[in-house]
Amino acid sequence: MLRFRIFRFFLLLWLLSTTHTAFSAPKVPEIITDNGLIYCTNASGFSFNPQTADAGTSMNVVTEQIYNKLFEPHNNSAKVEPSLAQSYSISADGKTIMINLRRGVQFHHTAWFTPTRNLNADDVVFSLNRVLGHNTSLPEFAADSNENVNRQYQIFHELAKKARFPYFESVKLNQKIKQVESIDPYTVKIELFAPDASVLSHLASQYAVILSQEYALQLNADDNLSQLDELPVGTGAYQVKDYFRSQYIRLQRHSHYWGKKPSIPHIVIDLSTDKTGRLAKFFNNECQIASFPEPSQLGLLKNNGERFQMTMMDGMNLSYLAFNFLRPAMQDKDTRHAIAQAINRERIIKHIYYDTATIANRIIPPVSWASSNSRRGFLYQYNPQQAKSVLQDKNLKLEMWVVDQEQVYNPSPIKMAEMIKSDLEKVGVNVKVRSVSRNFLMRNLNNKTEDYDLILSGWLTSHLDPDSFLRPILSCNTVNEITNLSNWCSPKFDSLLDFALIHHNIDMRASDYYSAQQEILTELPIFPIANIKRLLISNAQVRGIDVSPFGNINFEKLSIRGKK
């Protein structure tokens, strides 16, 4: 029966996806336009399972509504608050976390899965072991009992190894968490290799969702474990009703949601347009909320203040220029410092971000509790005369790569690259800009053939703990990975990061991260450019919008004035 339902659903998806060139996407049902909400966003990097999404990319708002996590960030602070967890405790030595789970939490009933039980410790153990690369959360079968059962377990192992979990790999979570086990149906024990103050924040990140182990077992029995990441089953306030590839996702209210009942019964996520198209739909009232609006067009909202509203929040992100330490010219500290002084970041803020970002004078964004907002002591204010005195006689010919794909932290990467090229040419540096695809970049990194001198990049995270901001992009463990594009390694820097995890005192941790930032700003493997603000625009009738530093909003809290 399960196999038939899966086949029927995939057949529907296939028919829709193969005919979209001949037919337009289905019209949004009247039930949505009459008693629902339409949210316009983009389809770039979309995934139904955030566990498998690329680290450092902006997760689509959809998954925040479908899944829950053990913890949630508390008021954008260093603290977390229980979500699927009811309570938790940490042992005196800091190496054991005991989690008591919330009871009565139901999974979604969908066209492709009907749960027979509520969430319990098995689901948590399965979900965490999966991203850690451990397969011990599914039952062990005796080697000589049943050949078919053994084969199913073998298939699970084979398929599980094919899945990648980029965020958890980037923060080396499997080097932090030693073991996850269930003590009883509603108690989970997490053992750490060493005390680590960042683990709870990782478990509160948008990537750390809890899946249904029962669903995984059924898929595994059908040799179809990959569906776990394609047809979602969660415990969140909304569940997937329909999906039309690259067009829209229709969500409906989870009738047995454990939390507060959402006000809006139906939501459509429109994935079909670019920035300009989204704004056109928004002004035409075809969507009530639009994310990632084109900054240059935000002035159109000024004359419609009564109809529209803009919500803005400082973001946990950074755009930067990375110096490739594998290239001889970039190994000279004076050269790196002079290049930084040659770049006019105020011009970039004005013409790339249209003042929806601020100049980044630190590596950790100001919104984080570990950031220092002081400009005093920043070494690289714009000073083209000083830069020219260092660079003009070096006859530098540099190649700068730029991934031609807009990101949250850089809406116009090619244009930014050309502006930096212009700045450097004024001080005597010849720069060739090369536009590359993400796949091309990854292939060269894997083959160790990346021959760029400079590369434009950036980073963003889903919580405010600095460990997941600094470690992936600059630690020795990530050299030659796509996150550490500077190929920089400093044992001193790594030691500061490790030391910051030993204690839970926020002031002490912030002091360690300040020292780590100073090491970066002195050696300058990357030059910070901008911190972009997370913003969206909405119809004035929509209430309850609260944008997080990570760009998420909680549909559970939304309402539309005049509608029930």
TrEMBL record:
GO terms for biological process: peptide transport. Residues 1-24 form the signal peptide. Coiled coil: none annotated. It comes from Lonepinella koalarum. The lineage of its organism: Bacteria, Pseudomonadati, Pseudomonadota, Gammaproteobacteria, Pasteurellales. Gene3D superfamilies: Dipeptide-binding Protein, Domain 1 (3.90.76.10), Dipeptide-binding Protein, Domain 3 (3.10.105.10), Periplasmic binding protein-like II (3.40.190.10). Residues 79-479 form the Solute-binding protein family domain. Keywords: Signal. It comes from the Bacteria. The keyword Signal applies. Pfam families: SBP_bac_5. GO terms for molecular function: peptide transmembrane transporter activity. One of its GO terms (cellular component) is ATP-binding cassette (ABC) transporter complex. InterPro entries: Peptide/Ni-bd, SBP_5, SBP_5_dom. This is Cationic peptide transport system substrate-binding protein.
